[in-house]
Amino acid sequence: MLIQASNSNSAVQDLSTVIVGVAGVVGTLLAAVIAGWWQARASRDQAARAHESQVAVLRETQQRDERLRERQFLEADHADRLLVTEYIDLLLPRLIQITSIHFLASANTRDEEERQLFERLQHQMERLEVNPAHPERNLGLRLTFLLFQLVGAMRLALNARWTRPLSVSQAEFLSHWEDHLEPVICSGRYPGDELLYREQLEIIADEMLNTQPQAGVKRPMNWKEFCAIYSAGGVLTELSDLIAKKLRFIFDDRNPRTTPLRRSAQCRLAILALYLIRMSEEAGEKGWLKRADAVWRTATNWRKWQLDEGQTPDWFVFEHGDVAARLAAAVPGLGVAAAIAQYPPPKTALPSGH
Question: Whole-prediction pTM value?
């Protein structure tokens, strides 16, 4: 009996030992599982927070880069606009002088100051000397050069459309080329003969920029470079002589019968000047506005002459009827509606590029 009790107690002790051991192992395993779960959860949370942080940094970097690019694009737009307005400001003074003269014949000029201006410009137009140090000695060629410089500057600004997005204001500024400048140079819908064909204008834009860029920046050639290329002969020389001849013709008053032709050519240049004045104004330069009335007078005078001769002019400057409205303001007792009725625009508007 004692032996059986002793064996029973021993078995119970062994079983307890086993149970305790198993419980310890299970507890250890549970603790390890729980610890692993918490560690995995903490790692996932940490990874998620790290990912969110990286995304936030990346987003901020992208936004900063976008702001930087936008600022650079705006600065580039501003630089292109300054370049164009610089050449506008070089061309406008002489262009306004030429297009503001009322009588294109010194014998008919009643204003002594205007007569002296006409004769001085006429003398400068007649000179054919090509001197890099004295551009004023050949006014016809110098005006041609300034026009060509502007064409080159516009080409540079327009080429930016293929390298970066343009701001809305810059796109509107450059739209003057296709809407106004190119047509007034090449289109037959304006008074006088066309100055150039579009194919010739393309050649001029390429030739004026066909210089070795300095510091990686391309620019229109300067007067000295132009004189060297002009003296060497070639396509730019022929095109320059073509324009200079048309400019000199405006001041050739030897044959009175040519006066209408010269006045129509002057009117086309006046319209060009008005377009440049508006572009300068949109670029922030207001100084030329006070000179615009004298240029408008040349346009309205030519329209009045056409109407007095029984012609039906269909040209305009910015919009149909604008010249008639100006003419009405200049004629006492003639209202705008009456002027437009007397000088009606065409029934079908002509496209600006034709």
Answer: 0.79
